[in-house]
Each structure stands twice: as structure tokens, then as C-alpha cells.
Amino acid sequence: xxxxxxxxxxxxxxxxxxxxxxxxxxxxxxxxxxxxxxxxxxxxxxxxxxxxxxxxxxxxxxxxxxxxxxxxxxxxxxxxxxxxxxxxxxxxxxxxxxxxxxxxxxxxxxxxxxxxxxxxxxxxxxxxxxxxxxxxxxxxxxxxxxxxxxxxxxxxxxxxxxxxxxxxxxxxxxxxxxxxxxxxxxxxxxxxxxxxxxxxxxxxxxxxxxxxxxxxxxxxxxxxxxxxxxxxxxxxxxxxxxxxxxxxxxxxxxxxxxxxxxxxxxxxxxxxxxxxxxxxxxxxxxxxxxxxxxxxxxxxxxxxxxxxxxxxxxxxxxxxxxxxxxxxxxxxxxxxxxxxxxxxxxxxxxxxxxxxxxxxxxxxxxxxxxxxxxxxxxxxxxxxxxxxxxxxxxxxxxxxxxxxxxxxxxxxxxxxxxxxxxxxxxxxxxxxxxxxxxxxxxxxxxxxxxxxxxxxxxxxxxxxxxxxxxxxxxxxxxxxxxxxxxxxxxxxxxxxxxxxxxxxxxxxxxxxxxxxxxxxxxxxxxxxxxxxxxxxxxxxxxxxxxxxxxxxxxxxxxxxx
Length: 561
Hints:
It is built from 21 helices and 22 strands.
């Protein structure tokens, strides 16, 4: 069932972006991935487009920018007007002129939007060089001013820096500076904060709002994060499988959704209130004492500065029990992934001990370490990069078993049984990773880890890239696996909402150090450290009770889960 769109079919004069009856279809196949979509975005307004993966929201943004892949997707009907000019009928040359000057786009992953072999200053300068008649000195001054406006520190240094030398938040600010330097009337932001921690995310959202107010920019914000939506949206458009399901103001969609699909999406948003869980009573499966990891600095070519060591983690202590889910939270650079990789021995710790069943893992190497790898398995953030695209799912799942001498027939049988555990059919073993959705691929990666029958499962940002409904399914799966197998789980995340729903214990890290540890309920409802309080305050949408479709009244805490 689709919802009748709000914009009228005729008048588009007052809108910066006016989409009317837009349809996008697969070239040669006739399959429509967007159907009869109509929406407006006005000057100074933020319209959020939400929906699950495959809903058509990113395709819509690419259609607006004229970036649909030729020969693969194309506009089959309707119009897309930016300040009255139809993008759908514009020539390639005119589209290039319109980009950056009239409309600009910020993508999800800044490292893919930036050229790794050029300095970031040169890349932003290129936009001015192509579209403005300015001297090199004038362009440099303009770029530096833009860097200051997006609150980058030490702009002279950053101008000459390469993308890999900057943090994720700084790279995203560079991409925003590049998009806004010519003051376009329309900014399209496609999941620009998904991979960022909560404090950096908050800074980026405030920055976009600040620049929007300054330049009266119309913002089309593509996201699956309803916390972000609750913070920034003036109006919300809900999409499902190419159709506009519902649209309205922020209050209408979050507090009074009319469609069952919208209600399901909103109610899937995890609460910041911890679920009530019994304290884990299983035997300890892992003791970590004084764990540290220091990287030796390298002297730059022709530099006289002495190399400095970088401390990624120091004096980390934790105990993981059988059947326990221990969450490690913190900002990017806090050391949480370093700790996880040290425990799995993907990187070598420089200090401390890791005791597992009376055996010190930190002293093992080579052949002695090999049996331990079966007992500790890891699930990474990006399931597509974790799976070999040229191998069937079945071959990827049984690879570990074969390496440990399990007969092929027995390994295949075990793989089919494990796929059933994660909610997939054994028939999936004959297919390839690209034939599955993101959520299904993550289930496959979990199955590949579980098939080894591990005692410890490390989930490193395993649900951060998934939309809310798929995220809820994967979290439920991990909980079921914990109850069924008793595996101890180390859950690495920057999303406090996710940690609140799944973790028994939470450990908060800042700059390589553990600043607070306790039960999830204690840490999230009565934090002792100021850094923990800052993380909770920065969580987007913390003033909304999504499950009950209502804002949290001023002065009140979130209702119990």
C-alpha cells in the first residue's frame, strides 16, 4: 500500500528541489526500483528520506544528481527540478556545471569520495579552479576560510595533508567543505554519519545545520538512523521497495505514523534504556590483565623530529564469562577495536596477559597459536568485504573446518545446520555473496564464525552499517545464539542504543584507557565518569521514546524498556 504524496502535482516554483512522479528502472529489464515518487525540499528545510536497504532512497539521490550508472539504471518517467531546471533532461555538460554550483552531495564513506594520492587542499581547490575564475592565492584563501567554517583545526596543516592522515570526522568535514564551497542551493547527504561515533556524529549534524542556516541551503538527508532523523528533520519521507509509503512532519511520522510499515520501522529503533537482564553466572572464559598496544613512531623523510610512540591501548583489564555479552564502547580512536584485535591475535599486544582456560595466549605463536584460533572467532563490520566474492557461501563457511582437518562431507553438513541456526536455508550454500542482502550477508559471517564452535565470539561493529529493522534481527540472532550455545561475546560498538539492548556488561574506553566498567544498567543510567555522560548526551534522538511513539517529556528519564 502506498501513501498519496504531499506535494501538489503542479506548482514547483517555491521549492529548491521538486520531484514529480519520478520512476527509475533497470535498463533493458523494465523493473522499476523507484515508482512515481513526488517530494519537495524548500530553502532552509531538511527533508529526511528513510527506509530499509533496497527501498530506493539512495537511487533517488543519485537520480537528483544525475549520477545514475548509464546502461544500468535510468529515469523512465517524471521530472527532477533543481531551482526550476529539469535534471532528467539536462545534457552531461550542463549536469557537470550544476554539480557543486547548484547542487552537491556528501557520501557515506569519505575515503571513497577523496583521492588518496592528492592532498585534501588540492582536491577542494580543484572545485574552485573548474568553476570560478580566481587566482591560486585567492583559491587557497577561500579553501582555508571554508576549512575554518567547518571547524577544522590547524587549517594550514590540514590543507597539505592527505586523506589517510586525518580522522574519520575530519575527512567528513573535508567532504562537506568541498560540497558547500560554491554555496549550492541543494545539499544531498547520503548516510554521512553512519560510520561515525556519537560525539563526531553530533558535531557533523550541528555543522550541517549551522551551514544550512547561514546559506539557506535545502537539505535532502538520506539515512536509516531514526535518532538522527529525530534531531534534524523538518519533514520525513518513508520509502519501501521503491514506493513512497508515507510523508509528514517529524512529529507526524515519529509520534503518529499511519502506515504499519512506518510503525514497524520506528518501533525497531533500539532504546537507550538497557534491557533488564540477569547477571551472567557462567564460568570465566577469558581474563585480560594489563593489556597494552603501542605503535612505534616512524621518522618522516627529511624530518628532524624524533619519532613518537602512539599508545593505542594501555592497562586494559576485563573478564568475559560463558554466555556473557560484554560491550566495549567509545569514540573512534578510543582503542576498542585494538583490544579486540589483540585478543583475536590479529595484532600483537605489546604488554599484558590474556588467559583462556589457564593458558596465556599472549605467549603463543606460530603452530602453538593455531588451535586457539578455532576457539576465538571474529565478525567484522562489513560482511561484503569479509566474504570472498568468487566463492560460494558454502565454500566460505567450511573453509575453517577444512583447515582443521574436518572431512568435507561432515563440514558441509555442519555448515547447513549452522545456516539454519542463523535463520537461512542450507540451500544458500550454493549462492554467492552478491546474491544476498546486507543483513543476510552478516548472518552468513556469523554462521562462518559459529561453525567453528568457538568459546569466544568477537563482534566488531557488526551491526553499525545495517538499517534498523535488519539490525534488530541480527541483535536478536546474537541473543539466541548466546542462549543456545553459551558462547561469550565481546561486542565492539560506538552505538550506545545497541549496547543498551544486547550487553550484560559495558566497558567504556577513552584514548586507549578503560574509564568505566559495570553492568549495562549501571553504566547507562547512572554513569560515574564525565566521558560516559558526554557519550550518552551526544546520542542522537535520546529525547524520543521510539517504541511508544512519543517524545520524552522535559525533565523525565526514558521509560524502562
